[in-house]
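Q: I'm building a small set of examples for a reading group on sequence design. Run inverse folding on the following structure and report the sequence directly after it, with nothing in between.
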């Protein structure tokens, strides 16, 4: 199908209920969607019309009588609940072994080598909230020039630095050094640059974050599409998540709404292939900060923007909306949550009201995308294209 376009929009952390193995992750009882739909700021009629509340396990809101899209609940097969693992699985890579995490900090010998190669010392080396770590270590960093190195429950090494102390490009270079060191058994999913600015007592992170990801261990749906002559577009941090592998067009975004603006701009272009979108605010700004109302409000805004996107779809376009993990703002702690994710599929060539039930893996998306383009799938997952396509 040389004229086909598929848009996959990932609502980062938009989980819909804890998975059967949630106890292994300490996440029994988590349900991101249930938490945010309880807010008066939540209103998503467009997603409801596509079949969001008809999905398996969503029994606390009445579903649509005649859904306009096909829908499913997806279970994560990989052993993880982070952005990298989730997106890799959406793109067709199931990861049976979790990426390494460092709840007690990184090995001292690694950080000593990092210090030797950067010429700067380091602070913290603990699991920390990104906003709290600059509050607690910002002054010492500004006074000494030492880098703030910290992690989270995810497989990440994060480096925070004030833009007046460490220019952003220099911070990026330090992250590249850390990425070189964090390989093999220490191969974290992402090394993240976290620049901030401001003064003592009022430090704030800037939008010039940059992720340095582990290269995916095998081909994704994007690699396959490129080999067959299709374009692959990444919006937001998609390029970073896949270390650029398989993406031949990319654009950075400031926030969710800017992400939809950029997606709408790509929608107006003439191309054949995949546009892969990540909207990170749900996770970064609202899920981790356990802000139910703000998360709900962001969902409401996205739903309005989604209406604009749908109105601009061409007859051959196919839209898929999904998520990469949960981050329940009504749950304990501040970490991601091990949850099922939604899948909504819509387009002129997609049958309305098809309930795909509960699928075994996010990777079914990748297999289906390849099937839509009449390519024999070489990734993990099972296609559901024959179940939803109009004939």
């Amino acid at each position: 199908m040389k004229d086909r376009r598929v848009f996959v929009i990932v609502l980062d952390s938009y989980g819909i209920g804890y998975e059967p193995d949630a106890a292994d992750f300490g996440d029994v009882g988590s349900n991101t969607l249930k938490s945010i739909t309880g807010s008066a700021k939540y209103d998503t009629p467009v997603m409801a019309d596509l079949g969001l509340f008809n999905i398996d396990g969503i029994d606390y809101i009445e579903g649509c009588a005649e859904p306009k899209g096909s829908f499913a609940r997806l279970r994560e097969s990989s052993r993880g609940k982070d952005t990298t693992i989730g997106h890799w699985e959406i793109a067709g890579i199931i990861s049976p072994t979790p990426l390494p995490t460092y709840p007690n900090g990184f090995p001292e010998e690694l950080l000593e080598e990092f210090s030797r190669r950067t010429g700067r010392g380091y602070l913290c080396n603990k699991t920390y909230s990104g906003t709290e770590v600059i509050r607690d270590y910002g002054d010492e960093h500004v006074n000494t020039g030492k880098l703030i190195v910290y992690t989270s429950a995810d497989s990440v090494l994060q480096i925070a630095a004030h833009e007046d102390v460490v220019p952003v490009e220099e911070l990026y270079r330090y992250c590249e050094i850390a990425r070189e060191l964090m390989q093999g058994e220490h191969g974290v999913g992402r090394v993240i640059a976290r620049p901030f600015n401001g003064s003592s007592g009022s430090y704030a992170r800037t939008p010039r974050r940059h992720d340095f990801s582990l290269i995916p261990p095998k081909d994704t749906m994007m690699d396959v599409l490129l080999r067959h002559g299709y374009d692959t577009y990444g919006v937001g941090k998609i390029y970073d998540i896949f270390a650029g592998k398989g993406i031949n067009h990319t654009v950075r975004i400031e926030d969710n709404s800017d992400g939809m603006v950029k997606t709408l701009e790509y929608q107006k272009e003439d191309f054949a292939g995949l546009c892969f979108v990540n909207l990170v605010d749900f996770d970064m700004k609202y899920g981790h900060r356990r802000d139910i109302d703000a998360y709900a409000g962001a969902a409401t805004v996205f739903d309005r923007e989604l209406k604009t996107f749908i109105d601009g779809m061409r007859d051959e376009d196919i839209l898929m909306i999904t998520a990469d993990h949960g981050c329940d703002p009504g749950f304990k702690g501040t970490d991601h949550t091990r949850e099922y994710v939604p899948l909504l599929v819509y387009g002129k060539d997609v049958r309305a009201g098809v309930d795909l039930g509960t699928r075994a893996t996010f990777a079914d998306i990748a297999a289906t995308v390849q099937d839509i383009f009449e390519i024999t799938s070489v990734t993990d997952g099972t296609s559901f294209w024959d179940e939803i396509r109009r004939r």
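The chain is about 30% helix and 20% strand.
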